[in-house]
Amino acid sequence: MDPSAYFSLLFSDYTLRTISLGTVLMGIVCGVLGSFALLRRRSLLGDAVSHAALPGIVLAFMITGTKDPWLFFLGAILSGLAGAVWIIGISARTHLKTDTSLGLVLSVFFGLGILLLTMVQRQPNANQAGLDSFLFGQAATLMVSDVIMIAVVGLGSLILVAVFWKEFKLLSFDPQYAGTLGFKVRLLDILLTSLIVVAIVLGLQTVGVVLMSAMLLAPAAAARQWTNSLGTMVLLAGIFGALSGLTGTAFSTFSDKAATGPVIVLSATLLVVVSFFFSPGRGLLFKQIRLYRNRKSLRLHKTLSVMYEIASAHEEFSHPHSVSILNDFRGYSKKCLRELEARNLIVLKENTWMLTREGYEQAEMDHPENQGR
Amino acid sequence: MSNAQVEIQLIAVVVAAACAIPGVFLVLRKMAMISDAISHAILPGIVAGFFLTQDLSSPWLVLMATLTGMLTVVLVEVTHKTGLVKEDAAIGLVFPAMFSIGVILIARYAGSIHLDTDVVLSGEIAFAPFDRLYAGQTDLGPKSLWVMGGILLISLILLFVFFKELKISTFDPELAATLGFSPVLLHYSLMLLTSVTTVGAFDAVGAILVVALMIVPAGIAYLLTSKLKTMLWLAVGAGALSAVAGYWLARRLDGSIPGSMAVVLGFLFLLTWLFSSRHGMIPGIFRLKRQKKEYALLTFLLHVKNHSAPGQDPAERDVAHLYGHFNWTGKTARMVLNLAGKNNLIHMQDQRVSLTTKGETFTEEAVGYIIFNEKAALENTKGRFLLFRG
User: Fold this and answer.
1) Residue A62: which of A134, A121, A14, A150 has the closest Cα?
2) Which A residues, 257 through 296, put their C-beta within 8 Å of a C-beta on chain B?
3) Residue B239 at interface with chain A, using a CB cutoff of 8 Å
4) Residue A346, helix vs strand vs coil
5) Both A346 and A296 in a single domain?
6) Which of these three, A240, A257, A279, is where a domain ends?
7) Quick one: pLDDT at residue B25?
């Protein structure tokens, strides 16, 4: 597929523009709220809630027989929240751990959803076609009414996040402190969790219930690697979310076979992998480089300090010594000596070495006896 | 019942039993979500295997998909070990990515392989009896029954041989390590067993409902007992029950069999949660009420005992005085007096209470246990002395 063709279509084609707007908005909302889910260590709650939303969607259709986005939204929210309450209830009231309650609610609710879905599909009702696009998502099924709903609800959630920015920030990093400052932590937690549920439900039609959790998590996890500031992280996560959404739409438009959800999730995962390796602060590549540099610098310092001890036993520090007397000290290497010479700390001459004045002074400063002067 | 119906139920029972066994250990080791990750992430392995063998129950496919499952476990651990994300986030990042690859592969080769996403999500146990195993001309039964039966047999053998090791390493990993059992080896063996079982069950019940069959029976059993052997039996029993009940529910509603198995399991869990005598909510409410009454009784008895000593004012033991002293309502006071009287712990003379010998022994014993916070011993004492409980 040619990206430029996609972009020219994006400006000329009304339907494509609508769909893209919908997925981009969805991506932004998911990225922003996903950041809080990641920081609050609620990463897998999204997985459970998105699966739990399925019976709500199918029930909304079974009861009304129409495919109104607001009804689906309502059904999904209600059953998603029911799932979340069940999870929290099991963890709080029994000795079962959170992982068990997550797996339990996720699979039971999804089972109910599948049961209802198969029941609906076997009924002679042509209107039900397309309900199963909620499983893996199909951006192409987005209509103007869907996009309007995403825009209204999504903007509403973003505004709420902006209004409660300080509170959510405190809640994410130090809930105990937030409590001592007099914020109603429980209430704030409920609000934040509800907003996360809303973000999940907004993405269901494009990404699908099965993979929605990744849409919440991946942009946030990628953004986390680039910064230590919450504001920047949320902004980046929004951008990453939008990018993944756009990629998914592009594929969905040009290949009607592919469900959108997997494409969106894979592009978001690609962003995560790139961030894991190449982010300057936390990235694995730079971490490795830093480790290598530290090792090298430590080796140089050790060698220099051994030389200093030998040299300071003599009256004149520039007295030349044979390289072989360093043999007792295992840490040195020829490369290391050359590096020291390149830094003008020692002078090498035919198998002997002597410290320069600079080298002597630096070693004197590094020496443990002289530390803290 | 037709032959096919019996066979479907039999397969469902075997699948449920095979899933319940590793499920118990996953729940006890707080790794339930790993089964979710494995069940999703084996998809690319299954698709690739299916592409090569065209047969969902081929041993090569089982092998490839199992290796994919192990790869997932390793990937989650590697991602977690980078220190860049927490463990739950690592799970949440790895399995959707792998599952996505699987779904895209299916869509890409949809024309050339018979495997669609519906099968992935909810299995095709209804068609399982039609795929049969033949030895020459003899019909040996459904192929998936043989595959799952084999897997169940393997996990049973492993369970019997390594029961002690599994038990110790689950409840006390440090002790297991000092005794010389390798926790790493046991961990990966369990992961391997989970992967194999998931792959085997995938064909019948699909990716996500495998999780229901692993986690929910174990959750139900854990609410009912704290003995590992009993828990395993209960989990297998709950799984088998859900298999049969789920089949009939699905027939009645004309819906997906695995879906209704999960619903039955959820319903069983809810019932257990409400009514289990050990951890149930409703027995819990009654227990709380009883504890409250018996606590009041003990406070009252202690008060009477303290004021029975020589040199104490006997007026402290007057019934009228008690109302004010404990700040009880008339109802509570009457209840306590009544309870103490019925159990023959006190006798009354001119509206003045004194302990019987039984009451004195009981109070002494109970107070001793309360001081050292020995709850079990206290409950035992209550059981021995109180004929009528609170």
Assistant:
1) A121
2) 257-259, 261-263, 265-266, 269, 272, 276, 282, 284
3) no
4) strand
5) yes
6) A279
7) 95
Do both A215 and A351 map to the same domain? Answer: no
Q: Which residues in chain A show pLDDT less than 70?
A: 1-3, 125-129, 255-258, 328-332, 369-373
Q: Are residues A275 and A349 in the same domain?
A: no
Q: How big is the CA angle at B362 (ends B360 and B363), to the nearest 5 degrees? A: 65
Is the ipTM of this structure higher than 0.90?
no
Give the list of residues 6+ apart from residue B269 with CB closer than 8 angstroms, or none: A104, A108, B216, B219, B220, B223
Structural domain span for residue A356: 286-367
CB neighbourhood size of B275 (10 A): 12
My answer on whether A268 and A342 are in the same domain is: no
Q: Are B151 and B214 in contact (CB under 8 A)?
A: no
Structure tokens at B289: 């009420």
Domains detected in chain B? 3-214 (1.10.3470.10), 283-385 (1.10.10.10)
The answer on A298 and A274 residing in a single domain is no
User: Is residue A160 located within the same domain as residue A248?
Assistant: yes
* Encoded tokens for B24: 């118990």
Average per-residue pLDDT for chain B: 86
Can you tell me the distance from the alpha carbon of B93 to that of A241, in angstroms, rounded to the nearest whole number?
14
User: Per the CB < 8 Å rule, is A107 touching B103?
Assistant: no
Tokens describing residue A99: 């992982």
The answer to whether the CB atoms of A221 and B122 lie below 8 A apart is no
Tokens for A249, please give them.
């739409």
Tell me the backbone φ, ψ of residue A229, rounded to 5 degrees.
-105, 135
DSSP B131: S
Query: The domain that contains A62 carries what CATH number?
Result: 1.10.3470.10
Same structural domain, A223 and A208: yes
